[in-house]
Hints:
The chain is α/β, with parallel strands linked by helices. It is 44% helix and 15% strand. The chain has three domains: 1-147, DNAb Helicase, Chain A (Orthogonal Bundle), CATH 1.10.860; 165-389, P-loop containing nucleotide triphosphate hydrolases (Rossmann fold, 3-Layer(aba) Sandwich), CATH 3.40.50.300; 394-462, Winged helix-like DNA-binding domain superfamily/Winged helix DNA-binding domain (Arc Repressor Mutant, subunit A, Orthogonal Bundle). It is built from 15 helices and 14 strands. The strands form four sheets. The chain has a seven-stranded mixed β-sheet with strand order 5-4-6-7-3-8-9, sandwiched between helices. α2 (38-52) crosses α3, α5 (90-118) packs antiparallel against α6 and α8 (187-200) packs across α9. The longest helix has 29 residues, at 90-118. Residues 1-5, 81-89, 143-148 and 324-331 have low confidence and may be disordered.
Amino acid sequence: MNTYQDADTERRLVAELMMRPHAIDDVGELTEAHFSNEGARVLFGAWRKVAARGGRPTCGTVAIELGSLSAEAHDLLMQAAELAPIAEDLPALSRHLRHLHAEAELDRALRMAFATLDGGKDPGALLARVDALRAEITALEGGGADDSLVVVEGPDLPHPSPVSWIVEGLLRRKTSTLFSGPVRQGKSLTAEALALHVSIGKDFGPFPCPTPHRVLYLSAEDPDDLTGDRMRALARGLGLDGVPRNCLFHFSPHKIDTAAGLSAIRRLIRDTRADVVTFDTLSHFHGGDENDNSAMTPVMETFTALARETDTAPLLLHHHRKGGSNGEGGDDLDRSRGATSIAANCPIVISGRRERYAVRTKYQEPPPFALRLEEDDGEAPSIRLIVYDPDDAPESRAATAEAVSTVQRLAVTAKGGAVPREAIAEILGVNRNTVSNRLKAAILSGVVKVERGLRDRVFYRPATPATCQT
């Protein structure tokens, strides 16, 4: 049995019971024997006795029932008395505790059965107990027929909540957002600026954030003093006197793929009542092989389950793969490092570099955005982060015009009037992805058409056929 997880489950369950006096039906077949923590077992037993008599098992009546408390039980009782309701799922919590207990009992029964066999005796009764325990564990893991086999009729399928979006296009409740970019290109700075905007309910450039929300920033990469200096500078850049209380920080990584780590993250979210949880960076919060889909799929599914369970919007910071870390072409949304399951399990993906970030979601088509920093190194340093549309900047319009002119000029002599992307890139002195970015606005406006040839080669042609000038 994992004693850390077991003790934590017992404390949470007892604290919640004290806030829900008539929850006896929710704990099902849970008994005092399922508890390993002495204080939790004593409190649960007293709570059961008061409830069984039809009384109201509050902190006071439980204390009266106990008469004198052990120090551990007293501390638990005081903790329960001070807690506000924490909206735990009591049936699931009770089932989880019984599951842990059954696993420990199974381990003991198996050891006894093997010892009996070694002694030449018939372990029939013990093996029957083993089979019963295995059946119990299977039932508990399945959650029972009522939990695991729920069927929803078509007309009853839920509609998206109008308040699902925290930052429209970027952060959505119950949904993981992957933020991928090259190393040392300002991902943390951008995520910290986004946290400030969310905490005060300020739009992040073209992305609306109508109301303030609480942000929990889990930082495992930068030291706390560096983060503090940067956050204060960003706050001054927004005209704030300091970092808002809605921004909360924690500087110890917890592995989400371990029982202790997941429990710690859950407690942090619950205790801070966070709406957005930033993980900086993803690699510090799991122990899996990032290049292995079979290892990363359960990790990413745990993030998804955590988002749904806590009604939060996780923001997962991640690095580009090395081959594309310093290249151009920020609209390439498939550059995130490691297994494809990382991005595949995130309904929202932000990818690129400071000059251009592209956004892909399953819900809408958000615009790209770019960032510009204005820094003041005076006595009270400030960083003003300006979010703007990269396609509307003067330099972007000029680059697009140059690319369109190149297409029109080369189309005169190109076979069939279709110009290969490689030829345009060679003349402009850029890579192929940059050509795609520069021509995107022209394609959307109908000035240029895009075609694909053999082996996925990309060609461009003017919408109006080019003619040879004589």
